[in-house]
Amino acid sequence: MAKGTLVQKIIAAHLVSGDPAKDAQLRIRIDQTLTQDATGTMAYLELEAMKTPHVATELSVSYVDHNMMQNGPENRNDHLYLQTVAAEKGVIFSPPGNGICHQLHLERFGRPGKTLIGSDSHTPTGGGIGMLAIGAGGLDVALAMAGQPFTIPTPKVVGVKLTGRLRPWVAAKDVILKLLSILTTKGNVGSIVEYFGPGVADLSVPQRATITNMGAELGVTTSVFPSDGRTREFLRRQGREQDFAPFGADADAEYDRVVEIDLDALEPLAACPSSPDNIKPVRELAGIKVGQVLVGSCTNGGYRDLAMLAMALKGRRIHPDVTFGIAPGSRPVLEMLCANGMLGDLVAAGARILEVGCGPCIGQGQSPADGTVTVRTFNRNFAGRSGTKGDQSYLVSPETALAAALTGEFTDPRTLDIPFPAVAEPERYTSDDAHFQQPVPGRGIIRKPTIGEPPMNTALPENIDGVVVIKVGDKITTDHIMPAGVHLKLRSNIPAYSKVVFECFTEPGKPSFAERAARVRDAGKHGVIVGRDSYGQGSSREHAAICPMYLGIKVVAALAIERIHRANLVNFGIVPLIFRDPADYDSIAEGDSLAFAGLPGQLVEGGEVRGTLQKADGTQREIVFTHPLSAADIVLVKAGGRLNC
């Protein structure tokens, strides 16, 4: 690990075991956790399964911000369970309508130098306030709440040196889009991004949080900014100056790689369909018609972003061909906009005010029309994530979104005939914590009939009689594996949710993945998934491992498997394997047999695994795999997952 970095200092202060100089993995103490309702229900069911009477962290918070549409009883059933289990286990509860976990945690609970893991991949938002904040599967978060250390790869630290100052109409969002154009969304597993340099001082904590939030799309473990005078000022304005502590890298810090970004040279950028690293300058997209503009989410739903829109739109109207939605990131932000009249300016301009929550960012409403462009200030634009098949989703800054909303087409905001709205940071942010519910045990836990139990796996068989149930390509996201949107309400019902695994690849009139996998399982064989590069990127949803496990999947083989998903596979007893020769991927077809004799004995730390591929014509040949498993991981997969240990 690079010397003298902020990352090194925070890890050293929390190190439980492992030597950064020689060990591939480190175990660190976790100070804080957060969960959200789409992943949190299973996390607390797992915590209950561990017989944990009370959380052992300094602070744990359960947020409801995802499943709030309540189409049917399932969502509200989950909320009641989360509210009552939090009260019993010593967890603060944030009810629906209070705000998105990442923004609220940054505003009210984030502390420089602390460690945080959350059951959401955008937990690194906390890096904007100087935390080592990491997304993880729900089971890992449950273990942290139970007082167990968290395992991370010994990181390579990528230093991003910022110089200069952002110019008018260029935003923090453009900083992370620029970095995505350089590092892309793959090949960064095991790295942590650390920002430094004179340009850091130009960025407020909310701007830094925008950058660390979307840093999740890089595939890195997390991203972090130093805690400095701007951090102290933010905490003072939040009424929490006592939580400030200075943290930064040494002047002579050494990084494993350095990327330089000149803020003066940045221009408005956009992530084009359908990947966050498909970056183009907005000026090159000028003239493309836009049918929908959405501003908000945990990436750009803060006060500064929405106040900028309100100031620019005052006395103006959005283009008649555009539907324009605003989703504030937290209740305090919405309260401030109400109090100063800016919400009225947004409504008068034609904005639709959406609920304070994740909403359209996760496919919960506001799906665009067929064949139209949607421009969003969110963090992901994976194909179909908006809820519309074949969508054309672009990710941009609020400044670029404003220009599209006013003109009805992609427009470089620097060309608008509008003075740049210089938003003054509030002297005091609204910081009413009355809506947070402090834990008061004794009422009992409410569990409605739609909430099941965490499914248990069996121990890894001696021999895997595998069948390739599906073969997929590059950049398969957890959205591909486990769709969100209308299916999110099934998260507490594994048998029902398992029916839609890989739903996006189901061809009309043909058996679904779930049907094929169940057929293999019921025949006494074992399911295998074959992927290519960057398999399992995106959301931290552990259901992308739980549901395949429930359907009998024992092995996932790919050219590369992303960090959180790989950990989730291990947690639920699925063996992650890496093709030693990429050409072997090409030789495999769906329906082929892929057998592993004596697989538990083959799993040796740093070793290889040999399997036998049998084609439909009966021909056989050996395929050699490597694996990323530590000695502790091997114990888990042999047992059939962490809940069996």
Report on this model:
The structure is a single chain. The chain starts with 5 loop residues before the first helix and ends in a 6-residue tail after the last helix. Helix 2 crosses helix 5. Strands 20-21-22-23-26-25-24 form a seven-stranded mixed barrel. Strands 5-4-3-6-7 form a five-stranded parallel sheet, covered by helices on one side. It has a five-stranded parallel sheet with strand order 17-16-15-18-19. The radius of gyration is 24 Å and the shape is globular. It has 22 helices and 26 strands. It is α/β, with parallel strands linked by helices and 645 residues long.
- Overall geometry comes to globular
Main beta sheet, described?
7 strands, mixed, barrel
Write down the overall mean pLDDT.
95
Strand content: 15-25%
Strand tally is 26
In terms of per-residue confidence, which ranges show pLDDT below 50 for 5 or more consecutive residues? none
Topology overview:
Elements: H1 6-14, E1 15-17, E2 25-28, E3 32-36, H2 37-49, E4 59-63, H3 74-89, E5 92-94, H4 101-108, E6 115-118, E7 132-135, H5 138-145, E8 150-153, E9 156-163, H6 172-183, E10 191-196, H7 205-214, E11 222-224, H8 229-237, E12 257-262, E13 269-271, E14 279-281, H9 282-285, E15 292-296, H10 297-300, H11 303-313, E16 323-327, H12 331-339, H13 342-349, E17 352-353, E18 373-376, E19 392-395, H14 398-407, E20 464-471, H15 478-481, H16 494-497, H17 513-522, E21 526-530, H18 543-550, E22 553-558, H19 563-571, E23 575-579, H20 583-587, E24 593-596, H21 599-602, E25 608-614, E26 620-626, H22 631-639
Parallel strand pairs: 3-4, 3-6, 4-5, 6-7, 9-10, 9-12, 10-11, 15-16, 15-18, 16-17, 18-19, 20-21, 21-22, 22-23
Antiparallel strand pairs: 1-2, 2-8, 13-14, 20-24, 23-26, 24-25, 25-26
Helix pairs in contact: 2-3, 2-5, 6-7, 11-13, 11-14
